[in-house]
Write a structure and sequence with these properties.
By secondary structure, the protein is α+β, with helices and mostly antiparallel strands. The chain is built from 5 helices and 9 strands, in the order ββαβββαβαβαββα. The two termini are 16 Å apart.
Length: 206
């Protein structure tokens, strides 16, 4: 699942061509550690001083997920623009999680286990550093890849995930259905795409 997509360059308010790809390698994970983490940790240091809540994923290390690169039931996606890694996602097609929406209860889905956008694309962290956000739309393109993966696996676009608190607004915005907080998953909110709202999502974010 490789191809060209557009994301938005914020300063020029214009479309930027990006590459989305599913042949993610350890090199991509290492790039995220080398380029994303210093920016994120720098922003977190300032946010801590000003009493702002810190992201729960600040400790993530994508290189620890390298053993899953060879698994047939796991897909990794990356997005690059102007030669720089802008986002990563891990999606599981062999998950034991099932749909919770009444019309889809018990149906299989693609489970988005991890998804992350480079910190220079997130307003909160750039404001802390006194800088402007670089791109928008990276998360949308990665979630589109998850829906397309679901369709390719004959799951009709069904996708589920547990959202970190500071990402809940994003999943509401793109039309995912929220459910109860999962006591077995750090009380994170469960969100899912039904076939109907997955199709609406693809149509609304072409």
């Amino acid at each position: 699942m490789n191809g060209k997509v557009t994301i938005r360059h914020r300063e020029s308010d214009s479309d930027a061509e990006a590459d989305i790809f599913d042949n993610v390698t350890l090199d991509d994970f290492q790039e995220s550690q080398a380029t994303w983490r210093p920016v994120l940790w720098g922003a977190c240091a300032i946010m801590k001083l000003t009493g702002q809540p810190l992201p729960l994923y600040k400790h993530w290390d994508w290189t620890t997920k390298a053993p899953a690169l060879t698994r047939l039931d796991v897909s990794f996606f990356g997005l690059k623009c102007e030669g720089r890694l802008q986002g990563l996602m891990k999606a599981d097609t062999g998950t034991l999680y099932r749909c919770r929406t009444e019309s889809q209860t018990g149906q299989e889905l693609v489970y988005v286990d991890y998804v992350e956008t480079a910190p220079w694309n997130l307003q909160t962290y750039m404001e802390a550093l006194g800088r402007k956000r670089l791109y928008s739309g990276v998360g949308v393109r990665l979630m589109q890849a998850a829906v397309e993966l679901s369709i390719d696996n004959e799951l009709k676009g069904r996708v589920g995930l547990h959202s970190l608190p500071d990402s809940e607004a994003f999943y509401h915005k793109i039309g995912m259905t929220p459910h109860e907080r999962d006591k077995n998953k750090q009380c994170l909110m469960w969100f899912e795409f039904t076939p109907e709202n997955a199709q609406s999502f693809l149509e609304n974010y072409k």
